[in-house]
Amino acid sequence: MRIALAQIDTTVGDLDGNAAKILDFATRAQQDGAQLAVFPELALTGYPPRDFVEKDSFLDRTACALESIVKQSATLEIAIVVGYVARTDHPSAIKAQNAAAVVHKGQIAFQQRKVLLPNYDVFDEARYFEPALSQSIWEFAGRRIALVICEDAWNDKQYWLRQRYRRDPVEDLIRQHADLVITINASPFNLGKRRQRHEMFESTATRFHAPVVYVNQVGGNDQLVFDGSSFAVTGDGRIAATATSFSEDITYFDVDSGSGQRHANLADEDEAAFEALVLGTRDYIQKCGFLSVLMGLSGGIDSALVATIAVEAIGKENVIGVGLPGPYSSEHSLTDARALAENLGIRFEVISINDGYKAMKETLQPLFAGLLADTTEENLQARLRGMTLMALSNKFGSLVLTTGNKSELAVGYCTLYGDMCGGLAAISDVPKTMVYRLARIGNARRVRNGLKAAIPENTFTKPPSAELRPDQKDSDSLPEYDALDAILAGYVERYESATEIAKNANLPLDLVRDIIRKVDRNEYKRQQAAPGLRITTKAFGIGRRFPIAHRFTE
Questions:
Q1: pTM
Q2: In sequence order, what are the residues at sequence separation of 6 or more whose Cβ sits closer than 8 angstroms to the Cβ of residue 420?
Q3: Does residue 518 carry a catalytic annotation?
Q4: Active-site residue flag, 452
Q5: Which end of the chain is more exposed for a tag (fewer CB within 10 A), N or C?
Q6: Catalytic residue, candidates 21, 95, 114, 193
Q7: Given 95, 125, 130, 150, which residue is catalytic?
Q8: Where are the beta strands (DSSP E) in 355-514?
Q9: What CATH code is carried by the domain that includes residue 9?
Q10: List 41, 130, 467, 496, catalytic entry
């Protein structure tokens, strides 16, 4: 049996468009000799649909879209595995189930419902779906198939030291004499995730001596980026087929011979992170209906990386860079920004905030009389820049990309309604030390494609600065970024205590405690930030939920 692993990029709620894409890919798979085309989890509705599943209209239209696939499949020989949202088949406070339908020759030949509903990190499925109480074997082309949906295949007791659930749906189906496992997934990308999937499903395949076909969604939906990276494993644990990461693809696996197509994947995790950011940025812009973007270009490394990502995502003709010099801007900030724009080939405009800053200080002088200048005046500059960018966004219809990184956002080294203004925080899950690495990758990718490196060398070597007061440097307020990022990785991503972090990173305990206080104190800023793209195991966003008002301290 020849199986097509069809990883597609779907848009949440675009039921007709998603259905058309499923039929198109299924037709292509049939033309290539496949008997079965497998699509990702909730491919018909897009993932995650979130509160849409509580709308009767959404459930009704999903059923209609599935019926259209069923009717049009009558002209095909190939069987199609489609993930979709199904209504529960009995009265329940929860209306929906996460389901898979096998569509074949004009009818639904088999259905399976999801048992294990993840309710951690970025997942909220227990809120939306009712779990299945049992599952059954699907028989097709002489095979007894365990068809499982994402989390149902992620509880292998041989792989995990501590299981999250008592049940193992794959094990249950193997006991029913399944000889092939097919799992459809909407598994978001984070660093290290692709390797983890291979390791886990190699373990599953060898444990049960059965081939495993893993099909994953690709594309960006809001804060989540799905990498695809679908694959097939033989019963002896050998990776036999692979799909590309971060793009739509079909790859094929022959169950009987154990042979398959191996499409190239990025081995380097930083390269993968760059690809994830490009894909997430492109899909966010296009799925939200924007045609162009703009951003402030400060001459610094963060805005340079965001501009490079944006150009690769949607093309240089759709990106506008804006220089916003103020009273403390250095000469090189503007020259480096201009050089970046010229190298990228994007439109570049310069709008000084000096007159606006002078006017605001004069306006506030009666109230500020006798008070020393402080961060208030610094934030005025940042907010004038934010207001200017938002005005351009309104006038041009362009989405503003914010340029702050994870390190700054973590400790509140950013200004609400200032540099935090915008519709997408493209690198808000990228630590500052990684920003430099990704910027190098961005330059190298352009050179490999016969283009000029975009980011000037001076941008890499000059000390980072917000340039909101004379001779300001980031190091005036923060430790060196190597140390800061080590603390943040321990505290934000691994939930380590101050003592553990200080010991593991060989840093002073007082420094670690100070950074932790900054992280906790600035939750109110992060919850007002633009949505960001998740690439680490714990991003600021839907997967990290702490109260703003609290009195717990480390």
A1: 0.95
A2: 386, 402, 404, 414, 525, 528, 529, 530
A3: no
A4: no
A5: C
A6: 114
A7: 150
A8: 399-402, 424-425
A9: 3.60.110.10
A10: 41
